[in-house]
Specification:
two-stranded parallel sheet, alpha+beta
Length: about 140
């Protein structure tokens, strides 16, 4: 009975992301590290510092941003030089707290959206939570 209670607690909504982060290697998560991006002759990283690719001529799909990445790789400058004016964030609040650079506890995201909105060239930041399609 004790094992069953422990197992159910581990699978609770509050812990599901921690379990997931354990299996994807947390800080070393391949989805959170652009140097682990698989490159093919047809692919090209869209933004230096982000696991990112052009989906169309004017849409980039990428890993989630982080405050460190925004500053270290001058992401806002790259956005401006590439004509990127909007970010559609699909990250759920408190999602993958141990992956990559982790989360800002007071915000529940890996970056502060205000960092983007301060940039005059950014016209839109949308937060649309999207459930992960995870399987245990």
């Amino acid at each position: 009975m004790l094992f069953k209670q422990f197992f159910l607690q581990m699978l609770s909504a509050a812990n599901i992301f921690n379990i997931q982060c354990f299996f994807c290697q947390g800080k070393n998560c391949k989805h959170e590290n652009y140097t682990k991006t698989i490159q093919t002759p047809d692919s090209k990283v869209a933004l230096h510092g982000l696991n990112s690719h052009w989906v169309t001529d004017n849409i980039v799909a990428s890993q989630r941003l982080s405050s460190r990445i925004i500053n270290e790789f001058k992401i806002l400058y790259q956005f401006k030089s590439l004509g990127i004016v909007a970010v559609l964030n699909l990250q759920e609040l408190h999602e993958h707290p141990k992956c990559g650079d982790g989360l800002i506890p007071s915000i529940g995201l890996s970056y502060d959206p205000e960092e983007l909105m301060k940039e005059k060239s950014m016209s839109t930041h949308l937060q649309i939570s999207n459930d992960d399609s995870y399987v245990l």
